[in-house]
Amino acid sequence: MKLAWILWLSQFMPQPAADSLCLSTTVYLEARDQSVRGQQAVAEVALRRLDSGLWGDSMCDVVTARKQFAPTIVSPNTRLRNMDAWNRSVNVALRAERNWALPVGQREEIVPGASHFAAHAIASPSWANSYQVAIIGDHTFYRVQRLRPRT
To answer: Is 113 left (phi over 0), alpha (psi -120 to 50) or beta?
Structure first.
């Protein structure tokens, strides 16, 4: 599967299927080589950003916001070839969405308050001096800003 094709297809899918596809794609691109916990943490950051409304009104808007997540950083010609990793990413994304649909006090949060993450082997963001929430695998999760759900 080619990234450009997946993102194109998501434009024609009904909600919430499109959001699940976009979140799965992001988990795959950002964390397919990480533990399930690391993948859950990536999904949690994206879901927290969606709740805030600052990056868009859908998960696809959030993960395709300019230079925020891998879908806008890697080449649109990137192929998602590892089907085992893809299946894990889909499962993680769907579980994360179910978890995030729970009331705030009942959610399992892997990286509480984290609004950003970075893999320092490939990125050195300007906000890397922010509060570190956790290090999972080769990703460091940060609370760069306090995100609140839209009212």
So the answer is: left
Cβ-in-10-Å burial (0-12, 13-18, 19+) of 34 comes to buried
Radius of gyration over every alpha carbon of the chain, rounded to an integer in angstroms: 14
Residues present in the chain in total: 151
Q: Residue written as tokens 């949690």?
A: 44
| Closest of 59, 88, 69, 76 to residue 1, by C-alpha | 76
The pLDDT value given to residue 97: 98
Quick count: other Cβ atoms within 10 Å of Cβ 53?
15
pLDDT tens-place string over residues 87-137: 999 999 999 999 999 999 999 999 999 999 998 788 788 888 899 999 999
pTM: 0.95
Q: Strand, helix or coil at 133?
A: strand
